Amino acid sequence: MAFLVLDRVRKEFGGSTAVEDFNLAVEAGEFVSFLGPSGCGKTTTLRMIAGFEKPSVGRISIGGRDITNARPNERNVGMVFQSYALFPNMTVGQNVGFGLKLKKVGREETQSRVNELLELIHMPDKGDSYPHELSGGQQQRVALARALAIRPQVLLLDEPLSALDAKIRDELRIEIRRIQRTLDITTIYVTHDQEEAMALSDRVVVMSRGVMEQVGPPFQIYNYPETRFVASFVGKLNQIPGVVIDSKTVQCGDERLQTTTPIEESPGTAVNVMVRPEELDIGAGEENQLVGVVESVNFLGAIVRVRIARGEQMITADLFNERLLELPEVEEAVTISFPAHACWVMKAN
Amino acid sequence: MTSLTSTSVEGQRPPRSWNWVGILPFLLFSSAFLLGPAIILLVRSLQANEGGWTLGNYRQLIDPQVLEAYGLSVRISIVTAVVGGVFGFLLAWAIIYGGLPRVFRSLLTTFSGVASNFAGVPLAAAFIFTLGRIGMITALFGFFGIDLYDSDFSLYNFWGLTVVYMFFQFPLMVLTITPALEGLKKEWKEASENLGATSWQYWRHVALPVLMPSILGTIILLFGNAFGAHATAYALTGGTLRLATILIGAQISGDVLQNQGLGYAVAMGMVLIMGLSIGLYTILQRRAERWLA
Q: What is the ipTM of this complex?
């Protein structure tokens, strides 16, 4: 049986529905991310698990115990907030030990646990510092240690890295995953950053407008999106309009494109051929080919992003950077190619 | 060297900023009405009434009458600051966390803004008309057979003046502490609940300690507010309650037993106490701002 279960959970604020029929079963020790744009209901769902919001309908259980109506201080879940929420009147050590103090754990045991956690977050000498003396990244580490100090059954992280700069974010992301694996703690992570969700999670829950769009491992979410929203929200995506010819062929302007994924729409239906930018190559290929004119070439370090105009439509190709890469010139007519297995078809809006 | 290089590279000096000119009216005003009078006060407190320099005025500060005046001022200031502080805090807390309708909240805030500045003769008159010997409320109580003045209560003694001072102390606390209460982050409460705290434990371990510099700072502000009050006490008691401010008035402009040098020395003592209060208030506010920013 799953460790954390959300069963048909729904949350309404006034007349509007923030989360609709949310079903999720999380295994013990699993790392699950809720991914979606602002207002998609991911934080509301997390807050329902924490007990800060009460579900309008549905049931939440942890380890078989129904916690739907339990108060936040009775749930034994640890939460890390976007704004750190460290208590400014307490030192780092006091912040980390606060939960244990409330549980009336002995002074020595508390100190030992605080030291252990400060070691875990690589801040053993900061116990006497105050939050305002720490950087944002250090404060978030302390917030993580504080949430872990009470040995929670589930760890909840609400966009914990979004207030940090890119370098610190990358470092802390690795730290969070290391600590989660070390402690083998069931973790729910809320983010709007798809790269973060992909890099950290065992499974990703993609949400939109309060609805769960797709759940699965990052590889599956990225390569086999089940809905148009997932396909366009997770990663970049080219959508080439066309008309179905048969179960494997779409007519796109003057060109015919092939796909190995069977097309469910009947012939004559308006569809879009979906293909990721990194699947495209500049130059003639053996399977699908399109022609266009280079609009721009942007060097982004590891990749070079080429935008190609096909009449009104713009297609993006991400080429992996290498020393021998020959970059196309702006306004140069080029052929784009991609294999049949790289694309799939969705019905046009 | 650096500036020369910089000038030669850019070919022109950075434009001079004239923004500081905006502070000139304030500087002129404070020089004319604060710094200037304070210097005159200091000089005159060191001058004998007959002319010449002396420390005699300061020696008279240990006179029992003067000490009593200071003592009375300090006592009434402490009582009104603490009582006004506590009840003002509770009212502000109720306004913010009591789930009151927004209209009611803005009404209370507006009232506090007006009431905190309502002092002097109008305030004294308002209380005389309501709680004086033949005031409306006194009469109303009398109608029900209760004589307020039968007990030790009098509008014209220490406790009477305390009640009157509360009229502006209480709302001043509300006005000053409300932003601090609003500065408490919702996440602190949620984080403490998440760690197992009850609402009371949150207030005890987090909210009140975080607010304490603001509360203490504001109480000191209230102390200063009451300590410097003159017109209300004088209009109400006619000088029968010998506060430090009333003593100063009597010594500087009184008709009999006038001793201007002593008046200036007492005033300097008040300046010192007020300076200490402002210093403490500033220190506490800095800490509060660091925590509640």
A: 0.86
